[in-house]
Amino acid sequence: MNKTKLSFTLILFIVKITAQTISFHNNIKKFDPNDFDIRIVELETKNNFLIGQPNQVVYRDDKWFISDRLTNQIFIFNKDGSFYSKINEQGNAPGKYSNIRYFSINPYNSQIEIFDNFQNSIYIYDYSGNFIKKIRLSFFMLSFEYLNKNTIVINKQYQKDETKYNYNLLFTDNKFKIIKKFDRITQTPSSAASFVARLSLKKINNKIYWIKTYNPNLYVIDDLNSIKTIKLDFGSIWPEKSFAFNSNLHDRNLIFNTFKAKYIQYFDIFPFNNQYMAKYYYKDVPYISVYDKNTNSNITYDCSNMPDKLNDFIGYTDNYVITMINPLDLLDSNIPLTKHQKNLINNYEDEPNPWIVLLRKK
Fold first, then answer.
1. CA proximity to 143, closest of 170, 165, 174
2. Domains of the chain by start residue, with CATH
């Protein structure tokens, strides 16, 4: 390697490290809804737009965009929960996708961009479900977010492919052409199945955040040349690197059972203006752990007394995490409901659409 190329490589992978450390899993108490600001959006229910298994929610332009793993569609609802439209363009013809792995709303042109992992392509639609164009990718990925109008951050997260782009993060232009690479994949975990974050790449309050599986850091991406890190401290319940990267460990049952006995599972973190909210399971118990930036303190909530889906966060805004829960499960929980909401639930004759629940610590 000549000196010019070496210098470029060093510049390419500069990471600015901060001394900040955020501690979690302290001061544990039972979940108390009075400690949280909880908002509910009741989604309209009709036979032609029933959501079976929601796995991603995005809120933009006063609309809710919900991908449904069961039906392989995207449902669009107005801010008040009334139905607006849906995207159901599955097939082999032009403009039809095979599978929705992930989607994002382009904040600069209000278009829905769907990543089809079967076709390794981006399918673009307007809010009414009209097909606009398809972009074939030169790499595989898990998710993406717009850093700015001209730059997209690509999350590959240990996903190797047959190209030269074996990096955990890529940066592309707004047409998904590679302009930069970060964090070369040199070693892959024995299994990430018990530790994968659904939303490991996020854009919150105009900043991009990324978490790397088994890495106790939160990365903050300000621009192409500045990636800061914040240390996440979970103590002894964080998976040991010697376990996570044991190339001789192939027994998936052993991996899963070890996680259940010793380590946190299904971890994710949401950095808001005044707090960091982490969600995870530990010894089969769901937890929500909140670090308050103003007081430099943490409180952790044991959520075993709440509906199963309460901490299954499938979306976020700049201030709230988002989950979706069957309203029938809310009726017997201690989540506060209005009289109108109770009447709606009691009057359902068939299985209703799940409701959107937004949650943040007060």
1. 170
2. 15-361 (2.120.10.30)
